[in-house]
Amino acid sequence: MIKRIFRSANYHTRKILFEKFALPKTVNEKISKVILKKYLPANPVIIDCGAHDGSDTVELIRLFKTASIHSFEPVDALFEKLKAHTVRFQNIHTYKLALSNTNGWSDFHISEGESDGSSSLLPPLEHLKDHPATKFNTIIKVKTITLDDWAKEQNISNVDLLWLDMQGFELNMLKASSHILKTVKVIHTEVSTRETYKGVPQYATYRKFLEQQGFKVVIEALPKGWDMGNVLFVRK
Questions:
Q1: Can you give the pLDDT of all 236 residues of the chain as single tens digits?
Q2: CATH domain 24-99+147-235 topology
Q3: Is the dihedral of CA 22, 28, 30, 36 positive or negative?
Q4: Does an H or E element contain 172, and which?
Q5: Residue 215, CA distances (Å) to 43, 169, 202, 232 in order
Q6: What is the dihedral of CA 32, 121, 77, 81, to 10 degrees?
Q7: Do 230 and 195 meet the contact criterion of CB atoms below 8 Å apart?
Q8: How far is CA 199 from the centre of its chain?
Q9: What is the pTM of this model?
Q10: What is the domain partition of the chain in residue ranges?
C-alpha cells in the first residue's frame, strides 16, 4: 500500500509527507525480491494476495520463471488490470477473490483518491487521518475464501511463498489457514504499527504469532513514523 501511495502522489504531496513524518528523501519500505532466491526453490508455488494491478506478480514471475503464481484481487477494475498485465504468462493464475478467515461474502472498503491500493476487509480508522487524500466512500461485497479451502479446491498441497498486501487482514487470514501455513517457507507481508484500520493486529502481535509457527524475521522495512511497513519472515 505505501509504495502505491508514493507511486501515485505528486511532488507536492510527497513533500508534505516527508515533512510531516520527518522522513529521509529515500524511504526504504521496500524489500528487494532478489533475496527470495536465497530461500525458495527455482519453481516455487507463490500466493500473491492483494495483487492490485499485478505489478508484484509480474516481478515475481520474471524472477522465478518456472514458478506457479496464484494472484488474488477482489476489486473489479483492479482485477481487470491484473488479468491484462499477466495474461501472457501461462503459469500465472488469477482469482477475483479475497482470501479471508471465512467463506462467503464480506464488506470491502474501497479506497479512492490518492490511492486505489488501500482497500480492505477492515474499515479505515487512523488511515483517514494519516492519509486524508485517500477516501473511503464506497463499500462493496466481495467473495471470500480461506486459504486452506481454496487450496483444497485447487488440489494444492503446499505453498512456498506468501506475498501478502491485505491492508491489515493478513493475520486474520493466516490464523484460519493452519494447514497450508505449515507448508510455507517464506512470508513477505505488510504490517501495521498503529490502528490504521479498525481492529487491525499490530506488528508485535503479528510477529509473535508467526514466531510461534516457526518463522523468524529476516528483514524489517519499517520507516520511522510510518503507519505500515514490510517484513520478510523465513521458516527457521
A1: 544 544 444 333 443 444 444 444 344 678 999 999 999 999 999 999 999 999 999 999 999 999 999 999 999 999 999 999 999 999 999 999 999 999 999 999 999 999 999 999 999 999 999 999 999 999 999 999 999 999 999 999 999 999 999 999 999 999 999 999 999 999 999 999 999 999 999 999 999 999 999 999 999 999 988 999 999 999 99
A2: Rossmann fold (3.40.50)
A3: negative
A4: helix 170-175
A5: 21, 19, 17, 10
A6: 20
A7: no
A8: 17
A9: 0.88
A10: 24-99+147-235
Handedness of CA 109, 115, 116, 121 (dihedral sign): negative
- Distances, alpha carbon 177 to alpha carbons 146, 171, 186, in Å: 6, 10, 15
> Would the CA dihedral through 129, 130, 131, 132 be positive or negative?
positive
Beta bridge mates, 49: 72, 164
What the block records as the C-alpha cell of 122 is: 477492515
Q: What angle is formed at CA 236 by the lines to CA 150 and CA 101, rounded to 5 degrees?
A: 25
Select from 43, 105, 44 the least CA-distant residue to 74. Answer: 105
**Which residue stretches of 119-158 are H helix?**
127-130, 147-154
Determine phi and psi for 174, rounding to 5 degrees.
-65, -35
- Asked whether the beta carbons of 51 and 82 are under 8 A apart, the reply is yes
CA 48 distance to own-chain centroid: 7
